[in-house]
Design goal:
- The chain is of the alpha/beta class and 229 residues long.
- It is 35% helix and 18% strand.
- It has 9 helices and 7 strands; from the N terminus they run αααβαβαβαβαβαβαβ.
- The protein has a 7-stranded mixed sheet, sandwiched between helices.
- α1 crosses α5 and α4 runs parallel beside α5.
- The N and C termini lie far apart (45 Å).
């Protein structure tokens, strides 16, 4: 009989498309990641120790090249930011922006965000979670790979403190509808715009590289904000 005690393999919501690393990005990973990075481990992150203060923490999942995250951090020095990204060129790019802008309120992880949330983020410790322009996995047979599923929503809910915000954005209408349906059905969240409605783009969210690309293709953009109850 098959061994049913083995854990099921989790379907990944991302594919590692590494791309070409520039010399600067390689240098950033070697020299700056030890300064501004957090290692993936089984040890919970002590944000007060990591940042040297107690401040509201924003987690961004899949920050791309990091330009928008760096802009948000520069515009909100009173907040701390943790960015998680699996693609090393993007991590290197953000590290270079941290150095260029002399940002003290940003830390970076190159890891699977779901594993980090499960293993290293304490319950009720985040003020805000951002999920901007995740892979839409457009084909119906690939929808199971979308990161926004009921189990992921429950995980985000556990890590946000009461009143915390989960902010999503996408330029794919089908994915926006999926997000809206999943989040409105989720327990413990309230749609900031009202059930069944999308939110206006907040001024604090900069335009991202992926958003600009989508706009060139004629895509609209949908923002969704939900507050933990």
């Amino acid at each position: 009989m098959p061994n049913t005690d083995k854990p099921l393999r989790r379907i990944k919501s991302f594919v590692r498309r590494e791309g070409r690393m520039t010399h600067s990005q390689t240098r950033a990973l070697e020299e700056l990641l030890p300064r501004f990075g957090i290692e993936h481990s089984a040890q919970p992150i002590d944000f007060a120790h990591t940042f040297g203060r107690r401040a509201p923490v924003t987690l961004e999942i899949g920050f791309g090249n990091g330009d928008s995250l760096a802009t948000m951090a520069a515009n909100a020095p009173e907040r701390d930011f943790l960015g998680i990204e699996v693609h090393r060129p993007g991590v290197g790019h953000l590290l270079l922006k941290i150095e260029e802008l002399d940002l003290r309120n940003v830390r970076v992880m190159c890891a699977d965000a779901v594993e980090v949330l499960q293993q290293q983020i304490a319950a009720n410790s985040l003020d805000r979670v951002q999920l901007f322009f995740p892979d839409p996995w457009q084909k119906k047979r690939h929808h199971k790979r979308r990161i926004l599923q009921a189990s992921f929503i429950a995980l985000i809910h556990a890590k946000l403190h009461p009143g915390g915000i989960f902010h999503m954005a996408t330029d794919w209408k089908n994915y926006a509808e999926h997000m809206l349906a999943e989040m409105d059905a989720a327990t413990g969240f309230a749609n900031v715009a009202g059930k069944g409605k999308y939110s206006p783009k907040p001024d604090a969210r900069p335009t991202t590289k992926f958003e600009t690309r989508g706009q060139r293709l004629g895509h609209d953009v949908w923002d969704l904000l939900y507050q933990k109850q």
